[in-house]
Design goal:
mainly beta; 2 helices; about 5% helix; disordered C terminus; Autotransporter_pectin_lyase_C; Carbohydrate-binding domain-containing protein; Pectin_lyase_fold/virulence
Length: about 725
């Protein structure tokens, strides 16, 4: 009777307030508050210790007197507040009679919403065994305002709605979600992660969210997932850290993932990074830091990744991969795994289609056996940006699918198709045995016509190793700075290439190697430039120095039409220019070749004169000068090394027909310009007059020079 009198008194005292408010709130003793629109409330009836609310066109809700603590009045709101606690969950539901029903079952809050408006659910508090679960016909907002939910037998957040969910992380708050290792039976409902949604997930706000996925994924959307802001950390996941079926897009905020499987998995969709910071730690074998079947695109932001599992990948996509801007730092330490006689490598970036790099800063470090920096089954196209890759893992042998002993080795940049590098900065360093800098099964193209071109620095320091056989039949895996099976064509750019160990070659093509322009500084142990079928040089500034083999070696023909080309081979039988007695054509440019011997230009294929000069010995740093009868310098060159016996090949348009010339050795030089010992515009003070010659033929031979090159007059 007292409660009835109290409620009646409240109603009488609040008549004036009611007129100014939109809702009456029923505060229940079970800590659930329900709101009723005053505009639909006809009356309240007190019958037999019960309170009946009479609403327009709705069933009359009934409360027992013991259920109601109090009544209050306030404004209408689309916000539903849920305060979690192990001692009881407090809920304020102003939409209880407008389409949002809420029940609580042992810490599990279950919501069914049919309302047409966008409702905001605000979660706070801590519960040690509970859940937030919702069914909603419309999109809604989920605000995490310092909530900590642990669920022993299911997801912490379970959204059984295919509509868009905007997740707000309140600034200054820390929110934690933890699921169980085993889930209770859910019938036909999906529950794929600690934070699961059937619909789209959009994260906003400046708060922090920590998710521990013990059963499967950390965060999972069966639609798409977008991060605009916020600090999201997946502290651990039994499967993927973040998984979305349609796509994952990160425009801002911070995402940190540690997982037993993939870090970010876009499934059959795409992944796009436009801003923010992504940090991923991956330790398991055969997993991916970032993975999608669609296209991976990066337009900004940062990616920092550590990958330590064998045959694991940093970024893996089945479709194209595009990097337009942003920063990528990937460190891999995993090793190769041979599965069914097929090696699978730990790789920084792996793409099944084409890789496009137009900008950004990419740094990849690989320390595992046969590790790869960037590897693509399709083409690799670099038109800008800064790409730095270092591999230090050694190579090894395995038995391939044809039951033949084969080899693998670390490679900074590998394409099963073509590689086109038109601009940007590319720095490759491989220190493991038989390591490669840039390798393509198709063609390699550098630069573009009338363009500045890329800056390329490629270094290998690892030794070759024996794969099979012995003696003359031995098969070695050799280090290579730049190599391709198809044509290698360079239009422009600046190149610094170093290969310090036996077998190390600078630029190698198994077909035709063509240089049309650019600046090249190549120092190797083996051939600096090598081609199986033809070397063609039409321009550029080219310096090739081999400490153990030829400067420039073509197993087919050798053609020079322009440029300044300096090729220094080692002692006999190695040569500055070597084309195995095939046609050696010179129609322009400046050629300087030194070695124990030299191929001889083919007179019938030349329109520019050459001189072959042999000396019984030569000393590093000594000058060789050629001048005409008027004392005009035609050629001044400082020797890059000493020789027991030396053959020098010089060709220039300055060598005129039927003209007398004098060769000086020693002396001094001042002024002018110097390109690796070749001086132009300098003042030469003569040393010792060595010999004279007359250019009475296309190729003039002085001394007993001539090697395994093209034959004069042939």
């Amino acid at each position: 009777m007292k409660r009835i009198i109290l409620l009646s008194g409240i109603c009488a005292l609040c008549i004036q307030s009611i007129l100014a408010q939109e809702k009456m709130f029923v505060h229940r003793s079970d800590k659930i508050t329900q709101g009723v629109l005053l505009s639909v409330l006809d009356s309240m009836t007190f019958v037999n210790e019960a309170v009946l609310l009479h609403l327009h066109d709705q069933d009359a809700p009934t409360y027992s007197m013991t259920e109601i603590d109090s009544l209050s009045f306030g404004d209408n709101s689309l916000q539903i507040k849920i305060l979690y606690s192990d001692t009881g969950i407090e809920i304020v539901n102003p939409l209880a009679f407008e389409g949002v029903s809420i029940s609580v079952d042992d810490g599990n809050v279950i919501i069914t919403s049919t309302i047409s408006e966008e409702v905001e659910y605000i979660l706070t508090g801590t519960i040690s065994n509970g859940m937030f679960k919702i069914y909603s016909d419309k999109k809604f907002i989920l605000t995490l305002n310092g909530v900590n939910i642990t669920n022993a037998d299911g997801p912490a957040i379970n959204i059984q709605s295919g509509k868009k969910v905007t997740v707000n992380l309140t600034e200054g708050t820390i929110n934690t979600l933890t699921d169980g290792k085993k889930y209770a039976d859910s019938g036909s409902e999906d529950m794929k992660g600690c934070f699961f949604s059937e619909g789209q997930l959009i994260f906003n706000g400046e708060g922090a969210l920590y998710v521990q996925g013990n059963k499967k994924h950390g965060i999972c959307s069966d639609d798409y997932l977008l991060v605009n802001s916020g600090n999201i950390t997946i502290t651990g996941a039994a499967s993927d850290g973040i998984h979305a079926n349609d796509y994952i897009r990160i425009d801002g905020g911070s995402v940190t993932v540690t997982s037993d499987s993939d870090g970010l998995d876009g499934d059959e969709g795409y992944i796009e990074i436009n801003g923010g910071k992504v940090q991923i730690t991956s330790t398991s074998d055969d997993v991916k830091g970032i993975k999608c079947d669609g296209t991976f695109t990066m337009n900004g932001g940062e990616i920092h990744m550590s990958v330590s599992g064998n045959q694991s990948k940093g970024i893996k996509t089945k479709n194209d991969l595009r990097i337009n801007d942003g920063t990528i730092h990937i460190q891999t330490t995993g090793s190769v795994a041979v599965v069914d006689n097929d090696p699978s490598y730990c790789t920084g970036i792996k793409c099944d289609q084409t890789v496009y790099i137009a900008g950004g800063n990419i740094i990849i470090t690989s320390t595992g056996t046969a590790g790869k920096g960037i590897s693509t089954d399709g083409d690799l196209v670099i038109s800008g940006g800064d790409v730095q890759i270092t591999t230090s893992g050694n190579g090894g042998t395995y038995t391939n699918t044809n039951s033949i002993l084969d080899s693998y080795s670390a490679t900074c940049m590998k394409s099963n198709g073509n590689i086109h590098i038109t601009n940007g900065t590319v720095t490759m360093k491989s220190t493991g045995s038989a390591g490669k800098g840039i390798s393509a099964d198709g063609e390699i193209v550098f630069g573009a016509v009338n363009a500045e071109g890329p800056v390329v620095d490629a270094t290998t320091t690892g030794a070759k190793f024996l794969v099979s056989g012995h003696g003359e039949n031995a098969d070695y895996a050799n280090p290579k700075a730049i190599k391709c099976i198809g044509d290698l064509t360079s239009h422009s750019g600046t190149f610094t290439i170093r290969c310090t160990q036996d077998g190390g070659e600078g630029m190698e093509s198994k077909d035709v190697l063509t240089i049309n322009g650019g600046i090249y500084d190549i120092e190797t142990y083996d051939d600096a430039i090598n081609a199986a079928n033809q070397v063609v040089i039409n321009g550029g500034y080219i310096y090739c120095y081999s400490s153990g083999n030829d400067g420039i070696d073509s197993n087919g023909t050798l053609t020079v039409t322009g440029g300044i080309v300096i090729a220094s081979g080692t002692n006999s039988p190695e040569e500055g220019f070597d084309c195995d007695r095939n046609t050696f054509s010179i129609t322009g440019g400046v050629l300087i070749g030194t070695g124990g011997s030299s191929s001889t230009p083919t007179s019938s294929a030349c329109s520019q004169r050459s001189v072959l000069y042999s000396a019984s010995s030569a000393t590093s740093g000594n000058l060789i000068n050629i001048q005409d009868a008027n004392g005009t310098n035609v050629f001044t060159y400082k020797l890059p090394r000493s020789y027991q016996t030396m053959t020098l090949l010089f060709s220039s348009a300055d060598l005129k027909a039927n003209t007398n010339y004098t060769i000086y050795t020693g002396g001094s030089i001042s002024g002018g310009e110097d390109f690796h010992g070749y001086y132009t515009g300098a003042v030469y003070t003569p040393g010792t007059k060595t010999t004279t010659f007359t250019t009475s033929s296309m190729v003039t031979t002085i001394g007993s020079s001539g090697g395994g090159g093209g034959r004069p007059g042939h």
